[in-house]
Q: What sequence folds into this?
């Protein structure tokens, strides 16, 4: 509640700052904005940013830190006496927080007065029952120590809340003052604002790095643990994948990697040509009406849950392929689940990834390029193939990379469509499986979570991460080399 | 903020029963409906063992007993007191399409001979020559072997390997042949008994029983391994085969006649009792006679409930909050 | 190859075969009536200049002749244009073949984002004018020479065409257009970004082209029109005001507007 | 030049007949055929896409539409105070109410029946779905109705529903313990009497999940809300962050190793299996930051991280395709780089950005795996949140998670529910995309 | 607002304040040395013409003056350019402010894909030159009038700028550049697509601008250079060959290359 209020106050101060900053700058030049370095709105925005950004940052940090600090000090008080023999401090703290919260709710609902909440003791009151009246359920009766700690908790939090409120508002005001003082005609407000925005942009791109670090960190420890109990050599070089419970599993990643690449390849062989042709048709040939219907329609394919594709692969594509390539005809295929089955279903799913994005970039190629080609007597398809697609190449590569990534990361279709067999084979009509599918199954299975069979999921994840990283570096390198010719 | 609800995670085999209980618990008590996550026994236990406190789960469902290594990890993370609750048994049945070939009776030996990677032949291990069920046993239909068995991530697989494959291996004398004639160590022989062929006759299913069912749907000659509850819910599309002459049912499993079954569990963090409202009540509710007893909704759904005495003992254990180490 | 025929064809300049014949052409951009009722006969083996103030519809009319207006959504054309007696808006006409026959140099140079070589080789390749790489190389070289840009780019044929200076791009586009050997060449201000020398080289090219082909050139330079063209058409506000022998237009215009324009009084 | 070229193009001679444009020559015919082929490939590609869309839609609709109706029993019962008190004293109160209802129905059947065959209570129990909680809820809220007749409309068992929909035959029930062929006679009688009717199952659209033995009570409503809050988080975070990151990388970042590293990283993040994002989310948001489990906020954050690469990659691709002349033009009149980007480049790149957003959100909306680890898959029947904060923080499920759990349940009725859920998911998706698609149309232009 | 100062400043034409001073400027495109060692002082309130054959580096040098070369990845500049005594490549210099001060008309017209009005209003808007809509309208109108295009577009201010004819686009870009009131205006062949009348209107504009500002114009027309400029610089193959009073260059060039060029012998 008070946080919402605080946020609103800061927002209001920001708005006020905007107006003042703008006015002050304008006033200094008697309303002639031409004499200002920047547009008046930049002066306003400058003040607004200076008012709001530090204040919100402080508020955020404080909100994160206060519970920790309060926790720490209440905890210190509990340490000696009251930690029940069989309870860790953290659980007692859970109780303390629950009671403290309960008191808060009770006060809010008028079940208890503020003083009462402060002076309550376990002898004279059944705290559990009183809190029950306010709809706060407690797991057990409240001990005096816990109640006391809860009251202390409430006190500290209350003080913290007030201090936060005051400091945040003060900081906002300070920022406002600073910004307003700066708002002189010669102040480079635009540069200042743009610097601020640029920092925000940089911050946004850092999130990608943070995510990467997070992923690596969340995988790496268990991966190390895995390699401690399972030889890395076997993991990377063995061509057999056969986990079992009794120990003695063989956990070679090669067949899984092979399956991943094979299935992704087939999916891309389906999705890229179909997607590109669809994109080309939509952007170059189709009438506006057809385009406005077909494009979003195809995009639905990306939104159909993958389990549907999995079932579609299993129940429709598999039997169909079996009829064509099965024992009755050429005998390449033994069962309905195969690399081909999953690859086809996945390919369908990936069509919109390629088509929609490529359509947008193709559409963005300037008309002058087309005119130039038509003017030479090129047919539309020649123009597309030789002028437009090369011009749109960077974007198309991006789209294909996205589709490839999605193919590598897909699980459900593989589980249902490809069969679960980990094998190294060239025949696309055989069952295989992928790294991702095995990550999911090893992670969510029945194996002992500290065993190699479960930990291998992390090693698989880590390896896949490194492998795709390598592939991406390669892709970047190729694109760069290719692109340099053009720009 | 403090957590209001009981938080449960773990086995997908226990999940159905847990949902029945959770729904009833929410409807019949003043506590909020517990949250039951699926994700597998292993995930559930690993989260269970992350530590104590509100941010961790209170109960882990498991379709197998917790392992020593896991207990150690738990302990090292401060989860020292665990209450083990055995809720009943899960029967494992062999079923095929209602309209498919006549699979009506199996012996463990049939399965062993059909699925083993290698069979002893003239004092040597040779790769399994059987391609049709009738090659294995003349009474079985003459259709290609196509079995859908639980993948290695499933606890069911372990039961299948031990109670069916290994049993069949011993029944046919293959085990003895390996140990005595070929001079294999007992461990090696056991491993050889349980090694499943990879030429496509047997398909590992990593997903749920619905996936096995879907596989059968696209392959009418297939035979699949299911949980009893699943089969009972799908008698319109599946027909079940006897194993060693015994028809699977809650009664034959409870009595121990039917050979393939496994116990199901959930584990409670004792430290959370009294901290998380409703935790103990949930466990009590779960194992109450009206729920987990032979006439309760769980049994009605397909859980093989605990025999009378055992149920009492479990109820007692919950009541007294008896932890695992204190019972042993 | 043009040179070879030079002598034989020289004498036929001035003949009056009609190559392109437009009748009552109207062009609308949405509701904007950009070309009003234009009828004109353009002769073979002749250079025809289109002059007129900016925005009067020269480019628009030019684009009608090889149906480049088709690519502008909002453009709508009415009337009849015949080339060699064939209605180019006939259903059976393949605009691709038309455009191969009627080449075009656009007002704004628009090199492809490809190498200089590929820019020029593109047309010959799609029309199958070269049997092999060596022949193609030759075609490219010849075209670049005729576009008066060979010397500047011969060492950087692999560099992107978009990295050239404005005038170089313009000449590249001219080279690109002549490389496909069109029968009619439409040039929309081909020398606007060229220095006098390059301009005169292009003018020479035009002169050479007219031995065999018909060239239509849009220009804002009266001098240029007078220098290179045999016929001149003066457009004003979408109307074809006057069309006659160049000499006549520049010495004795019939319409007062024409006179005003060439003497620099209306724009 | 002359010599060199004379041989090259002998076709040109002064008296040559100029080519007709109406009669096509061989070369053009060949090229036109290629053109036609190319165009047909395009049409075929669209056709393939649309065909699969239709095929999938058809199978989804066929399997899912029955989920929207249910077979309901309407019955008037009269509960006394004593019966109420007794039921309330039980551990399994809902069971007691259910029994009362079943008894009432049994009585009615026997009363109006021919009298020769007694209808067993068990048989009636098998015909009914789980009805106890509905009745209990009603009487808890309306105790004044005790002792007065009240008409209830409650679901019959899922098998009765399937039988009446033609999904079950008598023969196939031979082995079933949940419904016997004989029970169907009673069902037929009830249908004739108008006690059993087919009605729209509003609970399915608005309700929460139910136990596995109660398909009639299962609903998707709460998880729609869960998904809504998740998507809200995803949209609010991933679009601005993704666009901001792309702008920085594409327009401002110096070309150096670091930006290359970031670029490669982002493409790589797109290839990280979604369950790994779940592992990350569990570690960072739940264990480290202490956010609650099963909360849509956490789900949204995880999906945001997962969606970011998609949005960044597509945004960068479309920023790249804006011609440089636009940037020069803006810089040339004294716009700052920032202004040129925000005023000119970004609007032109908008279609691509929106496409990336549509695809990214579609993907996020249908994703289950990462939710597995942060507690949103399973049984999370917590009903509706009462505000934004509670919507974000209270445990809830999400549509794909709910569908996934249903699809794994034994009772085939849940399979239907899963497909029905997919229909709702797609409707939600379409609604979500509609705005983006309209916006995209507005921004699309060619120049 | 320029007109207001007209009379007062008239008499100061011909003064020799140095506005832009370039010393030893080198520009490389990758390995291509496009500008070699160019030093030149450009005076205030003067029109300076850059002439030279196509591809000699005029545009490149022009783009150095307002740091538009910064936007070309492969371009690298060395040397010193000062405007009003300030090194424009100094770190503290804000290129944005520089470009607001030094306006530019590009060789290839590049209107924004926005309405004509917005094209012109964009600069004034971001520089805050108008207090309100009415003022902005006025600025736009004035600019379009000065760009000699007002009459043609006044009825279609909302139409997209990209739908104009080539010459109209060019004038629109001129209007857009003058609308921001730069102190220095760099014009890269501003009249290349214009008819004589429009050309003379633009030349009038240039004449008017020089009363207060400094104008640099690239042109291929010697006549135009002679007409509008006071100073002329002749570039050749990246070198500044000669820089002097226009009159002198055209009547008495010091360098033989200059002479060859203006008499039309080298290109
Ligand atoms: N973006 C670029 N990348 C590579 N080389 C370039 C680029 N722009 C120009 N050049 C080269 O630099 C040299 C000078 O080009 P510049 O554009 O300055 O010529 P210019 O004098 O303006 O010619 P024009 O009169 O034809 O416009 C030319 O050789 C040209 O090919
Ligand atoms: N794509 C278009 N959309 C709408 N109107 C257009 C388009 N192209 C040209 N116009 C308009 O049509 C008229 C004729 O334009 P056109 O380009 O033919 O002129 P032009 O004679 O070539 O002029 P310039 O010498 O300036 O190139 C002009 O009023 C112009 O604004
Ligand atoms: Mg034109
Ligand atoms: Mg230039
Ligand atoms: O999910 P399970 O651990 O029971 O296989």
A:
């Amino acid at each position: 509640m008070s946080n919402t209020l605080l946020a609103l106050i800061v927002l209001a101060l920001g708005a006020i700052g905007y107006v003042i900053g703008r006015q002050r700058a304008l006033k200094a030049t008697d309303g002639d904005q031409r004499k200002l370095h920047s547009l008046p709105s930049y002066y306003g925005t400058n003040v607004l940013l200076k008012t709001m950004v530090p204040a919100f940052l402080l508020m955020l940090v404080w909100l994160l830190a206060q519970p920790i600090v309060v926790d720490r000090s209440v905890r210190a008080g509990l340490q000696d006496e009251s930690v029940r023999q069989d309870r860790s401090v953290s659980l007692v703290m859970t109780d303390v927080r629950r009671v403290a919260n309960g008191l808060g709710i009770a006060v809010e609902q008028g079940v208890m007065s503020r003083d009462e909440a402060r002076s309550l003791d376990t002898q004279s009151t059944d705290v559990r029952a009183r809190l029950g009246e306010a709809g706060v359920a407690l797991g057990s009766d409240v001990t005096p120590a816990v109640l006391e700690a809860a009251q202390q908790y409430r006190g500290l939090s209350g003080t913290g809340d007030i201090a936060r409120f005051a400091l945040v508002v003060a900081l906002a005001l300070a920022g406002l003052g600073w910004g307003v003082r700066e708002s002189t005609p010669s102040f480079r407000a635009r540069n200042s604002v743009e610097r601020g925005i640029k920092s925000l942009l940089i911050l946004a791109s850092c999130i990608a790095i943070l995510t990467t670090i997070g992923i690596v960190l969340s995988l790496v420890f268990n991966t190390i643990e895995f390699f401690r109990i399972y030889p890395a050599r076997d993991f990377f070089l063995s061509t057999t994948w056969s986990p079992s419970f009794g120990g003695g599993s063989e956990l070679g990643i090669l067949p899984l990697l092979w399956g991943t690449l094979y299935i992704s390849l087939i999916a891309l062989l389906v999705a890229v040509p179909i997607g590109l042709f669809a994109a080309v048709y939509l952007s170059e040939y189709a009438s506006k009406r057809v385009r406005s219907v077909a494009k979003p329609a195809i995009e639905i394919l990306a939104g159909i849950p993958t389990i549907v594709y999995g079932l579609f692969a299993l129940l429709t594509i598999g039997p169909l392929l079996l009829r064509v390539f099965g024992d009755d005809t050429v005998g390449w295929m033994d069962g309905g689940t195969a690399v081909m089955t999953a690859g086809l279903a996945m390919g369908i799913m990936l069509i919109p990834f390629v088509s929609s994005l490529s359509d947008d970039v193709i559409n963005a190629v300037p008309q002058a390029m087309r005119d130039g080609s038509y003017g030479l007597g090129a047919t539309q398809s020649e123009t597309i193939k030789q002028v437009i697609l090369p011009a749109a190449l960077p974007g198309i590569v991006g789209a294909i990379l996205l589709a490839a990534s999605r193919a590598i990361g897909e699980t459900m279709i593989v589980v249902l469509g490809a069969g679960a067999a980990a094998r190294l084979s060239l025949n696309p009509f055989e069952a295989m499986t992928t790294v991702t599918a095995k990550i999911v199954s090893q992670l969510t299975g029945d194996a002992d979570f500290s065993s190699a069979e479960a930990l291998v999921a992390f090693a698989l994840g880590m390896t896949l991460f490194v492998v795709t990283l390598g592939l991406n570096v390669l892709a970047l390198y190729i694109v760069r080399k290719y692109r340099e010719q053009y720009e | 903020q403090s957590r209001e609800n009981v938080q449960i995670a773990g086995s997908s085999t226990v999940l159905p029963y847990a949902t029945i209980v959770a729904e009833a618990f929410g409807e019949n008590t003043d506590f909020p409906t517990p949250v039951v996550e699926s994700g597998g026994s292993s995930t559930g236990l690993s989260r269970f063992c992350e530590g104590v406190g509100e941010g961790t789960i209170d109960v882990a469902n498991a379709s197998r007993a917790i392992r020593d290594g896991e207990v150690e990890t738990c302990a090292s993370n401060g989860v020292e007191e665990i209450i083990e609750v055995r809720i009943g048994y899960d029967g494992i049945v062999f079923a095929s399409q209602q309209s498919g070939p006549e699979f009506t009776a199996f012996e463990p030996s049939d399965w062993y001979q059909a699925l083993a990677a290698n069979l002893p032949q003239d004092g040597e291990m040779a790769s399994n020559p059987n391609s049709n069920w009738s090659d294995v046993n003349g009474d079985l239909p003459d259709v290609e072997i196509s079995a859908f068995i639980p993948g290695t991530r499933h606890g069911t697989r372990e039961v299948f390997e031990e109670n069916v494959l290994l049993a069949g291996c011993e029944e046919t004398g293959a085990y003895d042949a390996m140990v005595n004639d070929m001079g294999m160590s007992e461990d090696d022989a056991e491993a050889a008994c349980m090694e499943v062929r990879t030429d496509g006759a047997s398909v590992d299913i990593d997903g749920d029983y619905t996936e096995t069912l879907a596989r059968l749907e696209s392959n009418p000659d297939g035979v699949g391994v299911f949980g009893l509850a699943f089969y009972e819910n799908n008698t319109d599309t599946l027909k079940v085969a006897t194993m060693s002459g015994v028809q699977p049912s809650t009664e034959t499993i409870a009595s121990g006649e039917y050979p393939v079954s496994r116990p199901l569990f959930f584990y409670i963090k004792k430290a959370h009792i009294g901290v998380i409202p409703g935790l103990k009540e949930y466990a009590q509710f779960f194992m109450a006679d009206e729920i987990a007893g032979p006439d309760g909704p769980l049994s009605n759904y397909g859980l093989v409930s605990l025999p009378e005495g055992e149920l009492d003992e479990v109820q007692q254990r919950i009541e007294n909050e008896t932890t695992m180490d204190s019972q042993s | 190859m043009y040179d070879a025929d030079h002598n034989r064809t020289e004498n036929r300049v001035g003949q009056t075969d009609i190559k392109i014949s437009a009748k009552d052409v109207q062009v609308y951009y949405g509701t904007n009536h950009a070309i009003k009722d234009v009828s004109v006969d353009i002769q073979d083996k002749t250079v025809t200049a289109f002059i007129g103030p900016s925005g009067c519809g020269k480019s628009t009319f030019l684009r009608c002749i090889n149906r480049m207006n088709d690519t502008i959504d909002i453009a709508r054309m009415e009337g009849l244009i015949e080339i060699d007696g064939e209605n180019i808006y006939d259903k059976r006409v393949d605009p691709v073949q038309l455009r191969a026959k009627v080449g075009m140099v656009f007002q704004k140079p628009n090199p492809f984002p490809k190498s200089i070589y590929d820019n020029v080789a593109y047309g010959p390749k799609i029309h199958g004018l070269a049997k092999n790489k060596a022949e193609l190389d030759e075609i490219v070289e010849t075209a670049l020479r005729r576009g008066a840009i060979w010397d500047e780019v011969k060492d950087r044929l692999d560099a992107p065409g978009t990295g050239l200076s404005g005038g170089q791009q313009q000449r590249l586009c001219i080279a690109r257009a002549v490389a496909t050997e069109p029968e009619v060449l439409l040039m929309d201000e081909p020398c606007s970004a060229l220095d006098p020398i390059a301009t005169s080289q292009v003018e020479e090219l035009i002169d050479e082209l007219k031995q065999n082909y018909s060239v239509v050139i849009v220009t804002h330079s009266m001098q240029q029109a007078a220098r290179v063209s045999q016929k001149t058409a003066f457009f004003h506000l979408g109307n074809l005001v006057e069309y006659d022998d160049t000499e006549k237009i520049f010495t004795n215009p019939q319409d007062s507007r024409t006179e005003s324009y060439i003497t620099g009084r209306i724009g | 030049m002359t010599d060199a070229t004379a041989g090259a193009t002998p076709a040109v001679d002064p008296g040559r007949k100029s080519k007709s444009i109406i009669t096509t020559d061989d070369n053009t015919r060949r090229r036109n055929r290629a053109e036609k082929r190319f165009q047909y490939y395009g049409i075929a590609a669209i056709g393939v896409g649309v065909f699969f869309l239709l095929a999938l839609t058809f199978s989804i609709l066929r399997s899912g539409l029955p989920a929207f109706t249910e077979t309901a029993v309407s019955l008037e019962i009269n509960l006394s105070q004593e019966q109420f008190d007794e039921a309330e004293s039980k551990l399994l109160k809902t069971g007691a109410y259910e029994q009362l209802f079943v008894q009432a129905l049994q009585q009615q059947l026997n009363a109006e029946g021919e009298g020769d065959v007694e209808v067993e209570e068990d048989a009636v129990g098998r015909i009914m779905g789980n009805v106890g909680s509905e009745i209990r809820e009603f009487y808890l809220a309306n105790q004044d109705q005790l002792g007065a007749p009240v008409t209830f409309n409650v679901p019959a068992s899922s098998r009765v529903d399937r039988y009446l929909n033609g999904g079950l035959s008598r023969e196939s029930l031979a082995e079933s313990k949940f419904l016997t062929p004989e029970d169907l006679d009673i069902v037929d009688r009830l249908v004739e009497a108008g006690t059993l009717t087919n009605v729209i199952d509003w609970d399915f659209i608005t309700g929460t999940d139910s136990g596995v033995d109660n398909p009639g009570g299962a609903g998707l409503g709460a998880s729609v809300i869960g998904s809504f809050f998740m998507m809200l988080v995803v949209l609010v975070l991933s679009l601005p962050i993704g666009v901001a990151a792309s702008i920085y990388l594409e327009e401002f970042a110096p070309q150096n190793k670091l930006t290359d590293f970031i670029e490669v990283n982002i493409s790589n993040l797109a290839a990280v299996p979604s369950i790994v994002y779940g592992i990350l989310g569990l570690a960072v948001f739940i264990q480290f930051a202490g956010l609650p489990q099963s909360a849509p906020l956490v789900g949204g954050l995880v999906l945001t991280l997962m969606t970011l690469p998609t949005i960044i990659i597509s945004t960068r691709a479309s920023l790249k395709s804006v011609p440089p002349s636009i940037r020069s033009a803006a810089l040339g009149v004294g716009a700052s780089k920032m202004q040129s980007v925000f005023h000119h480049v970004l609007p032109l790149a908008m279609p691509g950005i929106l496409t990336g957003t549509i695809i990214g959100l579609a993907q996020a909306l249908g994703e289950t795996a990462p939710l597995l680890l942060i507690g949103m898959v399973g049984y999370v029947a917590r009903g509706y949140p009462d505000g934004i904060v509670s919507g974000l923080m209270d445990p809830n499920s999400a549509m794909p998670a709910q569908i996934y759990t249903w699809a794994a349940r034994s009772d085939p009725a849940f399979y239907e529910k899963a497909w029905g859920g997919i229909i709702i998911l797609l409707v939600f998706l379409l609604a979500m995309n509609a705005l983006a698609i309209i916006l995209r149309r507005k921004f699309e232009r060619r120049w």
